[in-house]
């Protein structure tokens, strides 16, 4: 506020800008890393949002790290490396510890998830009451077991549906895609959850802790392009069993 003789002039600061920390855990993704980083760089955000890109290489043994370093100057990203492979969850938590945004958005490096969905994922945060948004593959991704347009790797979709139904049963909420990579949330909330999972059990643990706190998860439909094991998919049936145990454990243990 400035005073000039008999006048008062009030200069406002305008709407608050929200910073989004995009955390990309990476392990042996030499075939896709350049393309996904370029997509993230070019991604559009809603008005009033800015981004920082944090890449965590989880001790890749192929040329992934070299490609990231070659792109680093152009993309202005923050690169963090693990000396030994610790798992996807550990990579996300490392990125979280270095993040400075108001929000955290998790992005896989395999091109299954399209950064073109960022606008849709972030729009709900214009409502100050929204703390968590999931991008749901299952809102626009029907299961088709037969025919020309059958679902790629339907066993994974069936397993995901089972885990999601188990989540809803245990926690009394209704989500459609618990295992989605696209999880966006308030950074301070994410830190407060004290997630311990180092590997693929990150997804069920963080979801369980969010729902146990009574926090609503807003879901928006996203595009998905599933890949096969031959193309580099890493999650296996053992991870499904661990997910079941994780969901049950955190229902009764903090």
Automatic annotation (TrEMBL):
<dbReference type="InterPro" id="IPR050256">
    <property type="entry name" value="Glycosyltransferase_2"/>
</dbReference>
<feature type="domain" description="Glycosyltransferase 2-like">
    <location>
        <begin position="21"/>
        <end position="189"/>
    </location>
</feature>
<dbReference type="InterPro" id="IPR029044">
    <property type="entry name" value="Nucleotide-diphossugar_trans"/>
</dbReference>
<dbReference type="InterPro" id="IPR001173">
    <property type="entry name" value="Glyco_trans_2-like"/>
</dbReference>
<protein>
    <submittedName>
        <fullName>Dolichyl-phosphate mannose synthase related protein</fullName>
    </submittedName>
</protein>
<dbReference type="Pfam" id="PF00535">
    <property type="entry name" value="Glycos_transf_2"/>
</dbReference>
